[in-house]
Amino acid sequence: MEGAQEDPAESSSSVPRFAEPAGSAGGAEVLPPEESGAAAKKLCGYLSKFGGKGPIRGWKSRWFFYDEKKCHLYYSRTAQDANPLDSIDLSTAVFDCKADAEEGTFEIKTANRIITLKAATKQVMLYWLQQLQMKRWEFYNSPPAPPAAPDAALAGNGPALRLELEQEEAEPDDFLGPVRTPPGLVGVAAALQPVPTMPLALQNISLKHLGTEIQNTMSNIRGNRQAQGTGHGPPGEDPPLSSEPQRAEQPLPSDPSTPGKDPADSPKPTPKSSLTANLIQKAKRQNNTFPFFADGLTRSRTAQEKVLALEQQVLMLTKELKSQKELVRILHKALEAAQQEKRATSAYLASAGEKDRLELVRHKVRQIAELGRQLEALEQERDSLVQTASLREQQVQELQQHVQLLMDKNQAKQQVICKLSEKVTQDFTHPPTQPPVPPGAADRDLLSQQEKMEQLKDDMEAYRTQNRFLNSEIHQVTKIWRRVAEKERALLMKCAYLQAKNCQVESKYLAGLRRLQEAVGGEATECSELLRQLIQEALQWEAGEASADGVELSPISEYDEYGFLTVPNYEMEDLKLLAKIQALEVHSHHLLAHEAVERPLRERWAALSDLAPSVELKQLLRAGVPREHRPRVWRWLVHLRVQHLQSPGRYQELLSRGQVREHPAARQIELDLHRTFPSNKHFTCPTSNFPDKLRRVLLAFSWQNPTIGYCQGLNRLAAIALLVLEEEESAFWCLVAIVETIMPADYYSKTLTSSQVDQRVLQDLLLEKLPRLMAHLGQHRVDLSFITFNWFLVVFADSLISNILLRVWDAFLYEGTKVVFRYALAIFKYNEEEILRLQDGLEIYQYLRFFTKTICNSQKLMNIAFNDMNPFPMKQLRQLRTVHRERLEAELHELERLKAEYLETRNSRDPAVPEGCTSEDEGEGGP
Amino acid sequence: MMAIRELKVCLLGDTGVGKSSIVCRFVQDHFDHNISPTIGASFMTKTVPCGNELHKFLIWDTAGQERFHSLAPMYYRGSAAAVIVYDITKQDSFHTLKKWVKELKEHGPENIVMAIAGNKCDLSDIREVPLKDAKEYAESIGAVVVETSAKNAINIEELFQGISRQIPPLDPHENGNNGAIKLGRSETLAWLPGRPAATGQELSLEKTPEKSAMLPPNGLWGVKCTWEGTC
């Protein structure tokens, strides 16, 4: 659970991390990671929306922003508008982009409209699409606020479900790599960008949402006026605004990138504040900023001037300094020369004699001569150099001529090569067989082909992108669909559970009413009148309910899946309430069992490929076969029992025998045909073919087993077989399997001996397993065999409600009569307390008449039958049967003997009998 | 306070003659074309006033098919009255009725009240059994006879009123017994050899509650206890 909670946070924060390099590359904002995360989370930006009608149909720029709480994408004319024009519900939307459409065009399809949008670039489009997908996913992923405290039963599987989904979400969606956030075009920053210009100002105004348009305009105007009126922001504003002036006063050089930074830097509005409020704030802030800045400039003017003047002074002074320095340098040189002269003159003046002075002059003259010679040598050297230079010049000229020549040659050769290669390409492009095409046309052709190829490449690229996107879209939608389906299933389960609860409450209420009714009795008081009304109302409920909810929430239908009436058809007024209670209980049990019990069973049955006798199969059959598997399983069970009797064409042969000659039982069969399961629609519907099928099955059986022929009750057995197996030959063999292989011989014969034996066996077993109940019944002289005889003869077909009945049959067909004993005991055990409460024999009989139908918890009954009644050895059953058969036969013999004795005695006394009528009767009837 | 008398009544007759329908009409005043054939037996009660008494009928409806006849003794044993039903459109069912009368006379309680009901009188145009025959026969056995229609609710009440009239009024000496007497629920011997079967007019009450209380529970089934007394 913890891991699951962490997940969404991680996924959302991973996106901005990808997007951040793009932001910093833009150079505009360097934000702390959390803040950039928050900024990226806010999905908004300008997009063009296609819409309008008639002549003004076209693209309109709209400001789009996403509201996480509602999963709606709102749009307004500009970012500064207070009220959005409209919204798009993303929770039900799918996204699409078309490769062949204009660049950046994509669509949002909701259940009732398609919105065509256009982003500035393809990258922006992809960014939008991915963000929308992500938002939609986040919305579905966010744990929904439970409308009510979840029930204990549901809470059990709730977390598991959620966990499963979270894991799924964790798997990477690698169809489309995360798209980098296009800088400046989306996000809050984009709000400060100018609205993309439109050719017509009018076009941008939404005619559809004129009201909102006016409101927005008003709010803008108001915002402006407020800003102007108050100067330093409206009074009583929240703290973020009060910080504005300070920041504006900072002498920041106006950098083009700063506007982008502003909203990101400013404190984020708390998530609680509504979006519109946020927008108004933003608008005001923007309006406020400009005057503040201008004000700041005027203040700083004097200082700057001073600086400038000072700078100029500095410059002038520096120049002066430079010239002064130059002057100093010149003066230094002059000083140096003067000093040299002074030194020479002082030396000259210092030389004491003429000789020295002469020497000095000579020295000077020598120096001069030396210099003159040097000059001459240099002049000579120069001459020679000039000569060599001219010589070189000549050489160069020669060489230049040579080069010129070579160049000419080269050019000529190149021309030849060009011509030759041209010829070669011409030969290549236009094979000699083709008529020569003008070279210009060929060029154009080639160009256009290249162009086409380029276009195709572009298209391909576009299609590839579209394909990738659509793949991810499909993936996403599938995920969402699966999730929604899971949710729906959970809700349906909850619904079934609640319905079951409701049924239980209703049935309890009705039971309470019944008790009250009994308690009040026949007294004609106000109270009883009220009670009567309440009961009437309760009985009417069903009709009202059905029309009220009307949905397929499995309402109580009149007939069950096998066509039996769900509400037992008690005609007595006082039992109607009871019938309703029962139907409600059955329904609630059905609803509860459906998910909890039947689903795993169904899965086990579905997994069971081949049917083979085994302990597992026995357990499965005891738990009941799901309806969809029942015909197959029964066919197999029947085949297992009658394969030694079956032969191809046997059924048809038996039928044809009936056509030749009427079986003596045919009359009785015909009589019972329409009296079989009068509460089942398959047998009462005049157009149904079930009675015909039943007739044939019973007739065929009367030929199959002439000693039994037809016994009342066989119609019920065959009818159940028909209802499940539908096909009459299978039903016939099912009947054969029951009568000839499962039941002991003589069960349905003319004497019903085995049936009577089983009743005695049951008495013994009841005494053993339920001694308390039997003592109670004995005390009130209640003979259970009045009731139970029927159970055994028709295997509960008249007694149990259909879904329990068929479960009993599932096990009965596999395990045999033991199952009937087990269930007979279980039925008494199930209702033991109720019977023990009754203190009058008549009341007990009345209760036993219908009490089997009140059993609706098949699970409980099954547990009693197969667990509580253990041990239940077959050996004991066999022994008891043998003992009782012997006793019964002995009694029958005794009876015969006594009868004969009596007749003998009477015959001997006959003349003495005064009654004439009896003897007349005797004569007529004949012994 | 009116005395309540419990009267056990069993319905006998061929299959499909309308035994269950008669009971259904009498008890619930309802008719169903197709009532599931009775297997074993079904039990219902209805109380009707009779003179200064209340008669609570404990009605045991039985299966009609012949092979269930072997179970019949347990239903008519201890009965105060038996309604034997035939179908006026089926001669066969009248024959079956005679068999039942015979069996009751041989094995039934000695003073059982017999009432003959010719059911389906709404179908008199396909009648097979003339009313005269039935009347003559009933007279010969001292039984009440009436033609009924469960479908049209004809003579159903009358049938049971006829039975009520045949039940002799309470012996004033018995009044001390809580004001009620259980007639027919006593485990009177169903069949006494050598004793002539009594007609309704000769009804006499026998009460042996001590004996019935002694009966073991498993003896309730089958013929054993029925025959106990004779051994």
From TrEMBL, chain A:
Asked whether the UniProt record includes Coiled coil among its keywords, one would answer: yes
- Give the record's keywords alphabetically: Cell junction, Coiled coil, GTPase activation
Sorted alphabetically, which Gene3D superfamilies does this protein's record hold? Pleckstrin-homology domain (PH domain)/Phosphotyrosine-binding domain (PTB), putative rabgap domain of human tbc1 domain family member 14 like domains, Ypt/Rab-GAP domain of gyp1p, domain 3
Q: State the compartments where it is located.
A: Cell junction
Residue ranges that the Swiss-Prot or TrEMBL entry lists as coiled coil: 307-416, 446-473
Which GO cellular component does the record give, naming just one? Answer: cytoplasm
- Offer one Pfam family short name for this entry: PH
The Rab-GAP TBC domain extends over: 624-816
Q: Has keyword Coiled coil?
A: yes
- Give start and end of each PH domain: 40-137
Recorded hits in InterPro entries, A to Z, give: PH-like_dom_sf, PH_domain, Rab-GAP-TBC_dom, Rab-GAP_TBC_sf, Rab_GAP_TBC_domain
CDD domains reported for this sequence? PH_TBC1D2A (cd01265)
Bias (Acidic residues) occurs at 918-927
Q: Which molecular-function annotations from GO does this UniProt entry contain?
A: cadherin binding; GTPase activator activity
**Annotated region (Disordered), positions in chain:** 1-33, 223-274, 907-927
- Assembly and interactions? Interacts with activated RAC1 and CDH1.
- For this entry, the protein name equals TBC1 domain family member 2A
Q: Which organism is it from?
A: Canis lupus familiaris (Dog)
Q: What is the lineage of its organism?
A: Eukaryota, Metazoa, Chordata, Craniata, Vertebrata
Gene name per UniProt:
TBC1D2
From TrEMBL, chain B:
Name its species.
Canis lupus familiaris (Dog)
Q: Extract one GO cellular component term from the record.
A: early phagosome membrane
Where does the source fall among the domains of life?
Eukaryota
Q: What keywords appear on the UniProt entry?
A: Cytoplasmic vesicle, Endosome, GTP-binding, Lipoprotein, Membrane, Nucleotide-binding, Prenylation
What membrane topology does this protein have?
Lipid-anchor
Question: What protein name does the entry list?
Answer: RAB31, member RAS onco family
Q: Does the keyword Membrane apply?
A: yes
Q: Which InterPro entries match?
A: P-loop_NTPase, Small_GTP-bd, Small_GTPase
GO biological process terms, alphabetically, are: cellular response to insulin stimulus; Golgi to plasma membrane protein transport; phagosome maturation; positive regulation of phagocytosis, engulfment; receptor internalization; regulated exocytosis
Family that this chain belongs to:
Belongs to the small GTPase superfamily. Rab family.
What subcellular compartments does it reside in?
Cytoplasmic vesicle, Phagosome membrane; Early endosome
Any one GO molecular function term = GTPase activity
Task: Please name the Pfam families in this protein's record.
Answer: Ras
